[in-house]
Amino acid sequence: MLSLTIPRAALRSAAVPRQFAAASVRNASTKSIYEAVGAIVPEKREQLAKLKSDYASTKLGEVNVGHVLGGMRGLKCMLWEGSVLDSESGITFHGKSIPDTQKVLPTAADVGHKGKEMLPESMLWLLLTAKVPTADEAKALSSELNQRGTLPDYLNKIIDTFPKDLHPMTQFSAAVTALNMNSKFAAAYSQGVKKTEYWQSTLEDSIDLIAKLPAIASRIYYNVFGLGDGVQKIDPNMDLIENFTTQIGFGDSEGLIDYLRLYIAIHGDHEGGNVSAHTAHLVGSSLADPYLAYGAALNGLAGPLHGLANQEVLGWSLELQKAVGESPSDDQIVDYLWSTLKSGRVVPGYGHAVLRQPDPRFTALYGFCESRPELKNSSIVQLVKRLSKVAPPVLKEHGKTKNPFPNVDAASGCVLYSYGLDQFKFYTVIFGISRAIGALPQLVFDRMLGLPIERPKSISMDALFAELKK
C-alpha cells in the first residue's frame, strides 16, 4: 500500500547501503555508479557552500508582472545540475553538447553489441556523476539495471487489473507510484537516517525505478495492444533498450533498437523548468520518495502541451500526407501550412519555449534518419524532413512564433511509426522511460545538497494592482 506519511523514529541510523560498504573490494580503475556518485559529493557540497556564502545576494534578474502571469517563463530560480538549456547554443549535459556526447559516451558497439548509438546507460552515468563512463562502467551499469529490472508480483497484478481502455500513461503513472511500497528512501527516513545520507537511498530507489520502467511499459503495452512477449523477459546479455524492444516484440529490428538508444538518451534531460522535470523536483522537495515524485512527473508529461506533443505532430503529419500525397510539391506543403495557420491552429512540432535556434535533438534524430537506408525509403520521414525546410519561412512570415524551427517532437514520432511501432498512445510512455534518466539524478543531487522544500510566493490580481499603485 502507499505510505504518504512516514513516521520518523527518534533513533538516527547511519547505515550505509550494501553497494557503498562493498566499495573497498572493487577494482579501483572501474567504479560502480554508487562509488562514482559518492566521489563527487564533497565537491558538489563545497560548490553549494561557496554560492551561499559568497553570492547569495547576487541578483540573477528581476521578477516582473509578465513573469507572474506568464508561467514564470525565463526566470532563473531553480537549481538543476544535469543540463543547461541556452536559447542560442542549445542544451549541454554537464557542459557537453549532444554532438559531444555522441562522440565521447560509450556506444552499443563499445560494449560488444550491435549498433552505433550511445547507450542511455552512458547518459545516465554522465548525468549522475558529471563524468564520462568507461565502456566497462557503462556495461556494469547496464548489467545492474538488468538485475533490478524484474517487477514484483504485486505490481504485475495491479497492472493486469487496469481496464484495457485506460490510457497507457495513466497506467504507467499509477504503476510507478505503487512501487513506493518498496522504497529504500522511505524505509531509511522512517529509521531516522542522517540528512546528509538521504542521497544514498534516493540513488538506490532511482536505479531501481529506472531499471523497472521498461518492464512496466512493456506489460502495459501487452495488456492494451496485445503485442510483445507478455512476460517482460530480461536477457542478462542485452542492454536496457535491447531488452525493452524485445519485450514489446521488436527485438529483431536493429534499426529501432539503435533509434531508441538515441531517443532515450537525448530525451532524458532538458533542464529543470519543463513540467515533468520540475514536477519531480517539486514533489521530491517535500521528501517524497522517488516513486511518488516520478509518478507525479509522469502525470505532467501526459499533458498535450508537453510529452503528448509527439503523437500530435505525427497525427498532423499523416493528415498532411493524406491531403497532399506522398510526393507533394513545396507549394502544396506551403498551402497546407497556411490552411492550418489560418484555421487558428498551430503547426505542431515547431517552436520552443526557450530555444531560438533549431533544436539539437531534432538535428540528432535527423542525422539518424540520414544514416539508415530503411528510413530514406519512408515517405512520412521524408515528408517530415521536407517540412523542416519549408515550414520555417512560412512561420516567419506568419510572425507569431519566436522560434520557427522544428523541435524534437517534429521528428521523434515519425521514426517510431516507420519502424512499425504505430500505437500513438504508447509514444508518451516511451518518453516517460527516458525522462527518468534526467529527473531522478537531479533528485539525488537535491538530497545530496540538502535543498529545501520548494515554496514560491503567490499573489492575486488584486494584490498585484495594489503593489503597482505603491
TrEMBL record:
Domain of life: Eukaryota
GO cellular component, one term: mitochondrial matrix
One annotated GO molecular function: acyltransferase activity, acyl groups converted into alkyl on transfer
Assigned keywords, A-Z: Mitochondrion, Transferase, Transit peptide
Swiss-Prot/TrEMBL GO biological process terms: carbohydrate metabolic process; tricarboxylic acid cycle
Compartments reported by the entry: Mitochondrion
Gene3D superfamilies in UniProt: Citrate Synthase, domain 1, Cytochrome P450-Terp, domain 2
InterPro entries (alphabetical): Citrate_synth-like_lrg_a-sub (IPR016142), Citrate_synth-like_sm_a-sub (IPR016143), Citrate_synthase (IPR002020), Citrate_synthase_AS (IPR019810), Citrate_synthase_sf (IPR036969)
Any Pfam family hit: Citrate_synt
Mitochondrion keyword on record: yes
Keyword DNA-binding: no
Residue spans crossing the bilayer: none
Listed PANTHER family: CITRATE SYNTHASE, CITRATE SYNTHASE 3, MITOCHONDRIAL
Family of this protein: Belongs to the citrate synthase family.
Protein name listed in UniProt: Citrate synthase
Classification of source organism: Eukaryota, Fungi, Dikarya, Basidiomycota, Ustilaginomycotina
